[in-house]
Amino acid sequence: MAGADPQATVYRFDHFRLDTSRGTLHGPGDAILEVRPKAFALLRFLVENPEHLHSRTALLDTLWPDVVVTDDSLTQCISDLRHAFGDRAPLVLKTVPRRGYVLTAEVRPESSHAPPPPLPPTAARTGMVVLEPFGSFGTGSAASLAGLLTSELLTELTRFEGISMFPAPHGETAGAYRVRGEVRVAGRTLHVNARIEDAATGAALWAERFERKRTRPSELPEGLVETLSAALVRQVDREDLRRARQKPESELTVRELCLLGREHHENGTEADTLVALAMFEQAIAADPNDALGYAWLAFTVQRVDTYGWGPPEGLRTARERALVLARRAVQLAPDSPLCLSRLAFALILHQRWEEAVMTARAALRMGRPTDYASLNSCAEVLAHAGHASEAIDALQRALSLDPHCPPVTHSLLGRALLLDGKPDQALPELRWCAVHLPDYVPCFHSLVVAAVETGRREEARAALREAIRLQPNWMPRNHTGTWFFRRPSDVDRFLAPFRAAGLTEPETEQANDNLATVPPQSGPAGAPRAGRTKPASRSVKRPAGRA
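Request: output the structure for the sequence above.
Response:
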């Protein structure tokens, strides 16, 4: 039996590996198994004290000192561990009725000086980050807060999609990033300096200062860990994207294909969208288990069809494919906010509103960090389903986490504000997007409505001209293009400003005819919609390489 080893950072048992320095549990094939913080703490205690019978009372006192909790809390932690262990659970963890629990597997501690394990194959799908312990200046409280910040930051970064955390010995690995930082206390203010370096060369890539007021001397300021971790992940993504732009397409990893595809997708043009489609398809062909690749491909397939871009394959076929891709993404990563948000959007294409709203809300409640792409999709679903205030909250959260969100976020916020009856507040958001993303047609559609409702007819006419320039064959119709409204009142409200802005009478009559043919929401999912005149397919030459 192996006892606790104060120098150990890795514990191997059965087919599993617990890495306390990274805060991760690994299963067969070195795959990372998701467990919640308290379940992780329980497992750490058990591997440090194996083959001992631990009573429920002792475990409750260990995990929740000085806090009164029910037995259900411990039961949930045990259930989480058994779920993570899967079929191996009976060989690892034993329940002794009315007495407690025993970790029965042989535990092999490894010293912190042991050579690091090789990088797992999944590294090609993720950004590789090495987190060094944060340093401190001045008082003892700074040192304590630096240790606490390092621990919390490690946990938060490990939970991000697309990021893999590695212990310091992996710092020389090509392509990895090293995160360093220092903490200083000045009165009631906590100052944090954070840097990202190239792990192989030591070159500084990014640095930022963060200042937060403290309410309790022994605790980190609220929101600091979330803000800092989001900034670090954002910079890692940007640096990986910069590197990907400089590589031949034949050498791109799955992660790099998805980053480049996402960049093209967010540009919002026909040519960029078709390039994104090809990149996402290439990513999942290279790795059929890449959940994020399926999620992004689902969204791009939907856009290609609803905008009338690329070779026609039929509305129903494309929407069915988008739903299949989104479901596959969730199957591969059921706790992924991005995958769930994509499934929610695919569901509104089929007018499965209640299921879509539940899925979007589940993505927002998931507990894992949520990026702007997930928040954007969830917000769009909620706004079009009649829950505009929830959509506004999600989009404002996206902008607070990343003030440099793509312009599309401002366009979606503008539309949500319109649907919430606030055209005056919507107008600045839509104008901002129109300036920064002049080829994004949904923004101009919303701008027509906002301008008319605020009495700016000339601005509305100018927005309509831009929309027609970008999509000459587009007509204001529900459940095609960019309109997916659940409530008839929203359809009527958005249709009227197009008449006021100068849409010709024959076009308006055709729009009404098309609206009248939309089946009710209780109709069969994916049923063909009569009256949809799909724009003539235009031949678009994909840019050579990457735009």
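The longest strand covers residues 177-186.
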